[in-house]
Design goal:
Elements lengths: L10 E6 L12 H8 L4 E6 L12 E2 L9 E2 L1 H11 L6 E10 L2 H9 L4 E3 L8 H6 L3 E4 L8 H13 L32 E2 L2 E2 L9 H19 L1 H5 L21
Parallel strand pairs: 1-2, 1-6, 5-6, 5-7
Antiparallel strand pairs: 3-4, 8-9
Helix pairs in contact: 3-5
The structure holds S-adenosyl-L-homocysteine.
């Protein structure tokens, strides 16, 4: 699937054994509309097109033995070179990679857009990862059957940050992870749901009070659910010390 990759300001080039999985969910809603209007472009390339033998083989048994198959370095190397992405970040989706963060997503969204290699089977010959300087990126501590869905996850997270994609929406400044905190709880109509009302402060019209409440809720949630994020928070400028976890008023 190719959507005029040359003219869009940001593009993702995906190398996969199942390029027909794209755009898939990336063709829907915000990302899909932005793709259709040329705010970004997607080029899904078939790794198999770079196979050279008569069986078009892309994989072989692991050296040293063991189950499954490994993607061949020569085929993948040729596929990467054919994609002509020397000046762009070159990633490979891998459970061994550095876990993807919102900070890395923001960096990738601010650049020209990455080349992303999707593995399958047992993974990829190490030599092509080294020789092409691929950055290994994980989307979490679990194992998927292929890199395509992981690549979609990364692309979706980037695309929603591209200029114009979220329109008037707050474009991520208040969201989970944007300031090292999980997001505060959200509410909308009806005013009362199964006996439970929207917190008074949110309908008070007092913006300062709302902001204070939201910060306190975000801090409480983060301290309770993600002690790792809480510990890594920047020090409070006024005291120069790490803030104490606030009292938990919501969540678990
Ligand atoms: N044997 C490998 C797993 C291979 S899974 C191992 O134990 O590390 C097949 C492919 O799925 C991988 O090459 C990778 O591209 C993709 N994949 C699986 N889990 C992933 C994850 N958590 N994050 C990113 N990509 C993943």
């Amino acid at each position: 699937m190719t959507s005029d990759p040359s003219s869009a300001p940001w593009r993702a080039t995906v190398l996969a054994l199942f390029p027909e999985m794209f755009p898939g969910p990336l063709g829907i809603s915000l990302a899909g509309k932005a793709l259709a209007s040329g705010l970004w472009a997607l080029e899904a390339r078939d790794i198999r097109a770079s196979a050279t033998d008569k069986h078009r083989s892309v994989d072989d048994t692991p050296a040293g033995g063991g189950p499954g198959m490994v993607l061949r370095a020569d085929v993948l190397g040729a596929a990467i070179d054919a994609a002509d992405a020397q000046d762009r970040p070159r990633l490979v989706m891998s459970p061994r990679g550095r876990p993807l963060t919102q900070a890395r997503v923001a960096e990738l969204a601010a650049g020209p857009g990455p080349l992303i290699v999707c593995g399958r089977f047992e993974g990829i010959d190490q030599r092509v990862i080294d020789a092409r300087g691929l950055e290994e990126v994980s989307i979490g501590d679990y194992v998927l059957s292929g890199g395509e869905i992981a690549a979609m996850t990364l692309i979706d997270a980037c695309v929603r940050l591209l200029p114009g994609v979220m329109g008037k929406l707050a474009s991520g400044t208040d969201e989970s992870f944007s300031d090292g905190l999980l997001e505060y709880p959200q509410y909308t109509r009806p005013q009362v749901f199964e006996g439970s009302p929207i917190p008074d402060v949110l309908i008070s019209g007092d913006h300062a009070k709302v902001a204070k409440w939201r910060l306190a809720e975000a801090e409480a949630l983060t301290a309770a659910r993600r002690p790792d994020l809480w510990a890594a928070r920047p020090k409070a400028p006024e005291s120069g010390r790490k803030r104490k976890p606030p009292k938990i008023t919501t969540g678990e």
